[in-house]
Amino acid sequence: MIHSGNEGEVEAKGDPFEGREFPFTYRDFAQIAEIVQRDAGIALSDVKAPLVYSRLVRRLRVLGMESFRQYCGLVAHNEDGEREEMIAALTTNVTRFFRENHHFEHFKNRVLPDLIPKARKGARIRFWSAGCSSGEEPYSLALSILALAPEAASFDIKILATDINRNILETAKAGLYGAAAVAPLEPEARDRFFIPSGGRDSATMWRVGPELRSMVSFRELNLIADWPMRQRYQAIFCRNVAIYFESSIRAAFWDRFASLLAPNGVLYIGHSERITSSRHRFKAEGNTTYRLVQAG
Prior knowledge:
Elements: H1 7-12, H2 26-40, H3 49-63, H4 68-76, H5 82-90, H6 101-120, E1 125-130, H7 136-148, E2 157-163, H8 166-174, E3 176-178, H9 187-193, E4 194-196, E5 205-208, H10 210-215, E6 216-220, E7 233-238, H11 247-260, E8 261-269, E9 281-284, E10 289-294
Parallel strand pairs: 1-2, 1-7, 2-6, 7-8
Antiparallel strand pairs: 3-5, 4-5, 8-10, 9-10
Helix pairs in contact: 2-4, 3-5, 6-7
């Protein structure tokens, strides 16, 4: 959050983007930062002002506005759902197939071998990709499962994929990726589980096929709001999300995830994140990989 003292100090800082296309003051930034923190839990420090300007200037153009002060009035009253559009524009969506691959190796070698035999006998198995962005993470989970059990789409194995950004969720649901995006995939897996858009020899786009699609469900979810899920998950991926929250929210986060993990369940977090305190007992099982040992 911006550390600006009182309102007069904010106004005294003036316009950090003088001469730019749209007037943008620190008062505007403070109002935007307050809304984003309250609604999404994301803390924006003063140094994020240039990022906020660059991300939102497109919204001002689309809406035909003349200043950020005018835009702040719009989002303050959430007219036409613009607050959700603003948060979506400010949300970082960096992902790729099998990003931080050590997590998927652990998932394949230490989680799935115990679960797939149970699934073959009809057990209900659930995983959660929290902050799924454009879909590469949950589809990577599905591919990991299918690599060990090619018939897994017929089991009761489902992956819940959630994100606060409804626009990026539409991209994830469409499941259409360019050749560069699918480059990390084994050619055999790509050819079996993705459909080329056009002739197989000349395709530049690949669409998620029916087996992958049937294993993943996408839902819009604000992680600092209420979670409607009541079932337990054998593994949860929430990577590079908690770093955007203040420490108090981050600490509560781990407890909330623990409450939804099945006994012996695993939580995967981002490369710069750590579970430093929790009333639940987690055991580190590798780099940013934690297994729930006991709930307190």
